[in-house]
Amino acid sequence: MVKVHYVIAVAIVASCVACINFSCIISLFYKYINRHEIIDIRQLNWTSSVRCSLSNGTRLCSFKNVCYLPKKHLFLFTLTEHSVLLGLSSKEDLKTIYLSSVVNHNLMSMKIAIVSNENKVTENAMFIDQSLFLLWRFKWDNIMHVFHDDLIPLFLTYLDICGEISRCTSKYTLGFVDRGEGGPYHELYSLFSNQQPLLLHKYTNTVCFPELHSGVLSSSVWFQYGFGQTQGPVNTSVPIEILHQFKDYVVHRLGISKKLVNNNAVIFLNRKLNRKILNLEYFTSILYNTVKEAYPSSEPKIIELDLTTHNIALLIEVFLTSKIVVGMHGSAMILCLFLIPGSVVFELLPFGIQPENVSFIKAFTEITGSEIVYRSWVNCNETLSFAHPEAPPLLGGIYHLPKAKQEFILNTKIVPAVECCHDPLYLFRMFQDTEVGSDFIPRFQEALLAQQLFSKETVKTTYLNKLFSSWYFPAPATNVSCTFQHQTLTAMWQPSINAIDSLIYDISILLDNNTILSKFTPYPNLKINLSYTAYTAEIWIKAVSFDSESLDSHSKCQRKI
Ligand SMILES: *[C@@H]1O[C@H](CO)[C@@H](O)[C@H](O)[C@H]1NC(C)=O
Ligand SMILES: *[C@@H]1O[C@H](CO)[C@@H](O)[C@H](O)[C@H]1NC(C)=O
Ligand SMILES: *[C@@H]1O[C@H](CO)[C@@H](O)[C@H](O)[C@H]1NC(C)=O
Ligand SMILES: *[C@@H]1O[C@H](CO)[C@@H](O)[C@H](O)[C@H]1NC(C)=O
Ligand SMILES: *[C@@H]1O[C@H](CO)[C@@H](O)[C@H](O)[C@H]1NC(C)=O
Ligand SMILES: *[C@@H]1O[C@H](CO)[C@@H](O)[C@H](O)[C@H]1NC(C)=O
Ligand SMILES: *[C@@H]1O[C@H](CO)[C@@H](O)[C@H](O)[C@H]1NC(C)=O
Ligand SMILES: *[C@@H]1O[C@H](CO)[C@@H](O)[C@H](O)[C@H]1NC(C)=O
């Protein structure tokens, strides 16, 4: 490594002789530090090592000295006599390191080739002196997937491996393993990367890194798209607090400052390309009138937003300052993550589509402790629904299908939960345009009423109760002592410090190595009349409450002779 730095330093000095101004020197510096020299990595005494751990079933690995072969999308692990491999039970474990959080999507794993220094593959490699964090973006151009499948799991993984987000974001540069572009949400990914994220497939030469992390936690995931099962919500095992922290982190890093909440602002997410609302004038007028009726003291302000025309920081800022969101089902709904407590999300869905099956935002609002009111309206009137059988298959077209299949689709009026990803019935119904009917009004009125009845305190209490029922267990009894007096054995202890009403003590006593007695008592003491004169007693006490119990406390006593 010393050698590389020397080469770089010489190169910079040599180039600077011909370089006359400061910014030129700076740009030369970056040229060498960021783009680096092409070297034969083998001259560096190159040895790979790895250390893995399981975090609730997900493998997280930290590698040293690993190269990436872009033409074959392979990571090269150079095995030498100095390699250290820890936390792996066999080579099979090196095939199950997942670079994405998406449930059951096994394709997105790290592909490793074990090589020796004799292999020529690391010749002419480029050494990049950065700690890389590998991520396989699931759908880098879709804001919903960017948040739900990449950024939130990344945030969670950073918390897990670094303890604090900033420790990871100042250490790691993201390395994208998918074959995508930087994409429209590059700015968001950058918030989780020390330097601009690297698109690994764009390199022409082999690239080598001194350090590399792989493995992404998926326990924040609350929706799955139907890989190996039908689509629908997943019970996330992540507390809502993590999602709140994620939101705060993004807001802070985007430099969005706290603004006053505009109580009469209504965000209207309008889709302009497909899944459109056709009678916009009528729709915005009933929106306006219903909000005005519910909140008569102020003039409603309808803010129409669209992902294609507004930048992400601006969109998030508007979500932070509004309390009512209405929109047709679509990826922009994910921005409801940024709403403040007591906001209402009203989702519209095309004819035949069931929110229970498709709505990731409904699933989000059902996470315990989410402080958002969710309601939906599904178009129930087929004459107000406008399908596009002529469209390309991925936008709901069906003309490419056999006649019988087309008939089947046209005659199916409710779409069941489907498996991913190109179910033509699902796409056909999902890409219908809609004329909103007057039956929207009572649903929306009810949603606004529910918003008025919303109580942050109730949500907090429910959440706290859920936390306690998941995590509470009694502390052990302490200071256990026992004494003999005639035929009586007396045991005493200090009560469990977090005892609750239902708590009892489960006591086992072993007399003279042969008789076992079991007793329960709610009190922190016990007197037992023995039927014979015992000489020694060992006593174990467990504090028990409902289905949770403490660790055992133990004591031993002997009759004084
Ligand atoms: C190569 O590196 C290993 C440790 O990684 C070290 O023990 C060994 O001495 C090094 N060999 C040379 C020739 O530098
Ligand atoms: C999530 O958990 C709750 C409570 O345990 C259960 O009622 C519900 O059916 C679960 N939902 C899913 C999608 O597994
Ligand atoms: C651990 O994983 C299991 C199975 O995936 C899940 O049910 C559980 O909730 C997870 N626990 C935590 C604390 O994430
Ligand atoms: C799809 O939605 C229907 C209607 O709410 C529900 O009965 C069904 O269980 C859902 N399926 C899945 C997989 O969530
Ligand atoms: C469906 O919409 C059409 C056109 O507006 C209307 O004539 C019809 O009564 C509606 N049907 C129902 C069931 O509301
Ligand atoms: C319990 O035992 C600890 C030492 O193990 C002692 O410091 C403490 O005073 C005892 N408490 C009582 C109430 O006896
Ligand atoms: C109980 O067992 C221990 C070890 O097994 C032994 O030293 C002790 O004498 C026994 N006590 C009685 C009362 O049998
Ligand atoms: C134990 O014996 C004493 C005296 O023989 C008696 O007063 C007491 O009620 C007995 N206690 C129990 C729990 O049987």
Describe the structure.
The radius of gyration is 31 Å and the shape is globular. The chain contains 14 helices and 28 strands. A hairpin with a 2-residue loop joins strand 2 and strand 3. The longest helix has 20 residues, at 143-162. The chain has 4 domains: 1-33; 38-221, no CATH class; 232-465, no CATH class; 478-558, Immunoglobulin-like. The protein is α/β, with parallel strands linked by helices and 561 residues long. 33% of the residues are buried. Strands 1, 2, 3, 4, 5, 6, 7, 8, 9, 10 and 11 form an 11-stranded mixed β-sheet that branches. A 5-stranded parallel β-sheet has the order 15-14-16-17-18, with helices on both faces. Strands 23, 24, 26, 27 and 28 form a 5-stranded antiparallel β-sheet that branches. Bound molecules: 2-acetamido-2-deoxy-beta-D-glucopyranose (NAG) (8 copies). The site of one 2-acetamido-2-deoxy-beta-D-glucopyranose has 6 residues, from helix 9. It is found in: Membrane. It comes from Gryllus longicercus. Residues 235-345 form the Glycosyltransferase 61 catalytic domain. It is a single-pass membrane protein. Its main location: membrane.
Q: What is bound: which ligands?
A: 2-acetamido-2-deoxy-beta-D-glucopyranose
The share of residues in helices is 25-40%
Q: What would you call the quaternary organization?
A: single chain
Give the biggest beta sheet.
Answer: 11 strands, mixed
Q: In terms of structural class, how would the helical and strand content be classed?
A: alpha/beta
Which range does the strand content fall in?
25-35%
Number of domains: 4
Give the averaged pLDDT, no decimals.
Answer: 90
Can you count the helices? 14
Rg result: 31 Å
Note the overall shape.
Answer: globular
Q: Which stretches of 5+ consecutive residues score pLDDT under 50?
A: 1-35
Distance between the termini: 75 Å
Q: Total strand count, please?
A: 28
Main location: membrane
Pfam family, one: Glyco_transf_61
Keywords: Glycoprotein, Glycosyltransferase, Membrane, Transferase, Transmembrane, Transmembrane helix
Protein name: Glycosyltransferase 61 catalytic domain-containing protein
